[in-house]
Design goal:
The structure is a single chain. This protein has 677 residues and is an all-alpha fold. It is built from 18 helices and no strands. It is found in: Cytoplasm, Cytoskeleton, Cilium basal body. Keywords: Acetylation, Cell projection, Cilium, Cilium biogenesis/degradation, Coiled coil, Cytoplasm, Cytoskeleton, Differentiation, Phosphoprotein, Spermatogenesis.
């Protein structure tokens, strides 16, 4: 412990802290001073905490702020402080056994922690709830945020690689000199070749022909590239035409198959589903949420529990659940069918309601997923129409695509875990289904026995079959009559619509051909204008940049001159004030009045020195008394600490006993209530 404190004092006396502590002064610091010192060290690591004054901040806010930063820095409390609540309490009260290890850990690795705190400002991801991500703008902003985070990671890696690459100025200078030598050699070689060519007849004409050949080759390459691009555009246009034809066929099929009865049936299903959500599902979920919030508030109000207490409670809960399941199975096996008829109906009703809720949730999720996929499809189709074909991903776009695939992979793993949980639940439901089937068979046998006694065996079965067959027959007759009439009307309407569409589309197709030719001409003209615009914009941009640099330099000079002027004025005022004070001091010191002399600074400092000397004598006497009584006082403190530990142990034993009795009573009451149900 002494080595730890000595290391802390040495680090605090160095740059950038310069506290001038020794072991005695550091050990005599109060709780507020220790917290302020810890805040200064954290402010050196993260400048955001350097402007905070502990005395002006609430203790809970201080603890929350420091714990969040220590969590980002991945600090783990030592083995003697296993309970996080005790560590938090010690951090609030400024306890030395809590703060000294934190200071030692921070001062050991200050540079590493500075880097980690700097990266945490940009790499700690903000968790956005899933319901907010349904909004398109929020989803786009979140996507841009993730892309910027990935770009920052790549830039930081490149920066670190450049720092550790070991490139020096000497090596760069050698490379520059080598390049200059190569440049000189190339210039000499070109001059020699020019001298050789000058001796040949018609060398200018031959050079011109070679230049034209090079230009023609470049033009040939550009034409081949344009030909390939036009082939790609033609291929994409054919694909778009095929997709449009498929969509047209699907729309024709949808129009042929649609009927007013089916549309009404869909609307009735949607109305029933929405009414179920409004009247049953949403109020039940709201009530359950309120209950959960109430219980969570009760849990928060209770004192904090450790991991060992939670594990003991979980073991007890599992044991009680297994006992309850065993008792329920025994009861189901032992009960007579007649007596358990109402309970069976209740269970069936509860199972049906749960299935109804599950299907409603699945339907709601499917509708949300369908709407989101439709929005994505519309966006993709609009993008495809704008781009007129897909492009090969390159560079950063390919990295973003890989990141998306990784996120989808994690999502797939989560869904696979959910499927495993659903399969486990499916096994439990199969078991309950088997039990219900056994009970149903028992009830059917009992019903058959009663019918045999009364002499009407098979009456219930035949009655149900007759009712079902009559209902099906009446429905089929009605449907046949309606479908024949509707089909004849729909065929007439569709034939008329097809004839009208053909007649209306003929002039449109002619206009479309002319517009395509105009479109090709306009695209060529647009490309030429764009090249002219780019060249003009580049010239204007260069002029603007030079003017901006000049204006920036002049503004900096103006700001510098203004700051010098203000600095000189401030120095002049300070010197005038100091000169005025010196004149007043000299006047008071020379005056014969003793009252005026007492007001001088010299006399005030003399009185203060005398008071401090007297105070030093008193403190030395007090130090002597403290040294004499140090041994007995330390023994008394040790005895009091032992007594305090003994009373704390008794209090914990008493609380554990009360908790165990209370938990046993709650479990017994819950078991009685379930047995009554």
């Amino acid at each position: 412990m002494s080595d730890q404190i000595q290391f802390i004092v040495e680090k605090l006396n160095q740059e950038p802290f310069r506290k001038n502590y020794n072991l005695i002064t550091f050990d005599s610091l109060e709780a507020v001073q220790l917290l302020q010192l810890l805040n200064d060290v954290l402010g050196e690591i993260d400048p955001k905490h350097a402007v905070v004054d502990i005395r002006e901040e609430l203790p809970e806010q201080t603890a929350k702020r420091m714990l969040s930063l220590l969590g980002i820095l991945k600090y783990k409390p030592p083995g003697s402080i296993s309970d996080l609540s005790a560590f938090r309490q010690g951090l609030v009260t400024g306890s030395k056994p809590v703060i000294h290890p934190v200071l030692h850990w921070l001062l050991q690795r200050t540079n590493e922690l500075k880097k980690r705190a700097y990266l945490a400002r940009f790499l700690v991801k903000l968790e956005v709830p899933a319901e907010f991500l349904q909004d398109d703008t929020v989803a786009d902003i979140n996507k841009q945020y993730e892309e910027l985070m990935e770009a920052f990671k790549n830039l930081h890696k490149e920066c670190e690689q450049l720092k550790t690459s070991g490139l020096s100025t000497a090596e760069i200078r050698r490379d520059i000199s080598a390049m200059e030598e190569e440049k000189d050699q190339l210039i000499k070689r070109v001059e020699r070749l020019k001298k050789r060519v000058e001796t040949v007849q018609n060398h200018q004409r031959m050079l011109e022909i070679a230049r034209q050949l090079r230009l023609e080759k470049e033009r040939e390459e550009s034409l081949a590239q344009q030909k390939q691009e036009q082939k790609n555009q033609l291929f994409h246009a054919e694909q778009r035409l095929q997709r449009a034809q498929l969509q047209l066929k699907e729309m024709h099929h949808a129009v042929v198959d649609s009927k007013p009865e089916s549309l009404m049936k869909k609307l009735e299903e949607e109305i029933n589903f929405n009414s179920y959500l409004v009247t049953e599902k949403i109020p039940r979920e709201l009530e359950s949420k309120k209950n959960s919030v109430y219980f969570l508030q009760k849990v928060v109000a209770e004192p904090a529990m450790g991991q060992s207490d939670l594990s003991v409670l979980e073991i007890k809960i599992n044991e009680v659940n297994t006992q309850m399941n065993q008792l329920i199975e025994k009861r189901m096996m032992k009960y007579e069918p007649i007596d358990s008829k109402f309970s069976m109906y209740r269970q069936q009703a509860s199972i049906i309601s749960r299935k109804k809720e599950a299907k409603a949730e699945e339907l709601q999720a499917a509708k949300e997923e369908m709407s989101s996929t439709e929005r994505q499809m519309q966006q993709k189709t609009s993008q495809a129409q704008e781009l007129e074909g897909s492009e090969v991903l390159k560079g950063d776009e390919f990295k973003l695509y890989v990141n998306k695939l990784r996120s989808k992979n994690t999502f797939y793993k989560k869904k696979r875990l959910e499927i495993a949980e659903i399969t486990a639940e499916y096994g439990i439901l199969q078991r309950t289904e088997e039990l219900l089937k056994q009970r149903h068979e028992a009830i059917q046998q009992q019903l058959q026995a009663i019918e045999d006694k009364k002499g009407i065996s098979g009456y219930s079965y035949t009655q149900e079959e007759l009712e079902r067959v009559s209902a099906v027959k009446s429905e089929m007759d009605e449907m046949k009559g309606r479908t024949l009439d509707n089909m004849s009307e729909m065929v007439k309407k569709l034939n008329a619509m097809v004839a009208e569409k053909k007649a209306s589309l003929a002039p449109v197709i002619k206009e479309l051909r002319q517009l395509r030719q105009q479109y090709q001409e306009l695209t060529q003209e647009c490309d030429e204008k764009k090249i002219q615009y780019d060249s003009c914009a580049a010239g204007l941009e260069s002029n603007r940049s030079t003017l901006e640099q000049e204006v920036k330099g002049l503004l900096e000079e103006c700001i510098q001159e203004e700051s010098n002027y203000r600095y000189i004025n401030c120095m002049k005022r300070n010197l005038e004030i100091q000169l005025q004070r010196a004149k007043e001091e000299m006047k008071a010191y020379v005056s014969p009045d003793p009252q005026e002399r007492r007001k001088t600074i010299r006399e005030q400092y003399a009185r203060m020195i005398l008071e401090q000397e007297n105070l030093g004598k008193k403190l030395r006497e007090k130090q002597k008394v403290v040294r004499e009584s140090h041994g007995p006082n330390m023994k008394q403190i040790k005895m009091w600490q032992d007594f305090e530990q003994l009373m704390e142990c008794k209090r914990e034993c008493f609380l554990k006993q009360q908790n165990q009795t209370a938990i046993g009573q709650v479990i017994q009451e819950g078991g009685k209530d379930r047995l009554v149900l």
